[in-house]
Design brief:
Largest sheet: 5 strands, parallel
Shape: globular
Protein name: Cytidylate kinase
CATH superfamily: P-loop containing nucleotide triphosphate hydrolases
Catalytic activity: dCMP + ATP = dCDP + ADP; CMP + ATP = CDP + ADP
Bound molecules: cytidine-5'-diphosphate
Order of helices and strands: EHEHHHHHEHEHHEH
Number of helices: 10
Subcellular location: Cytoplasm
Structural class: alpha/beta
Helix content: 55-70%
Strand order of the largest sheet: 2-3-1-4-5
CATH topology: Rossmann fold
CATH architecture: 3-Layer(aba) Sandwich
Radius of gyration: 16 Å
GO cellular component, one term: cytoplasm
Family: Belongs to the cytidylate kinase family. Type 1 subfamily.
Amino acid sequence: MIFTVAVDGPAAAGKGTISKALAARFGLAHLDTGLLYRAVGAKGGDAVAAARGLEPADLARGDLRSLEAGAAASRVAAIPEVRAALVAFQRDFARREGGAVLDGRDIGTVICPEAEVKLFVTASPEVRAHRRWLEVGGDAAQVLAEVKERDARDMNRADAPLKPAPDAVLLDTSDLSVEAAVAQAAALIESRLQGA
Ligand code: CDP
Ligand code: CDP
């Protein structure tokens, strides 16, 4: 079975949490595509060369979850050659036998426009910044400013900007628990699997 679930949306909307739960529930492979950009940003130096030479060990670094790594990721993610270098790996992953969930910014629009299920997971900037602050701590106002800055950079870049695919289902998690958000996403997948 080839079955792709594309999960896109802004920072700390809950994409990764929902994707992991869906992958476990439906027995699908999961790829957090943000990790690819975080790893390229963290390598420093020539970002295009880093993207072309990305290795599994680069994705295992422990420092990829920080706010700084997120900011560096979104800067290198605006470089078209960096994005191009990462496309084939993501497409192959998306169309692997057995099915896959990929979360990121451009999965439903660029990487896998033919995905059987497309979710656009969102929440207000304040809710998302609060979630991120619970994870990383520090100055809450600064976390909110960084979330907004990254959203703006991701939405306004020329290549693969963050936006819902025309056929994506919107899931606003501002007032939803993780369990409720996963249940809504799972119901959508069930219905598409039955129709497939
Ligand atoms: O992948 P993305 O940056 O979109 O978000 P995440 O890494 O899944 O993190 C979102 C954080 O918000 C996690 O700590 C979740 O426990 C929490 N959360 C959520 O994901 N979904 C909700 N409906 C409520 C809270
Ligand atoms: O977990 P969070 O949503 O905070 O960030 P992430 O998914 O790890 O993504 C980090 C950055 O990588 C984003 O702000 C985007 O600039 C970039 N990214 C992208 O351009 N395309 C993707 N498919 C995934 C991430």
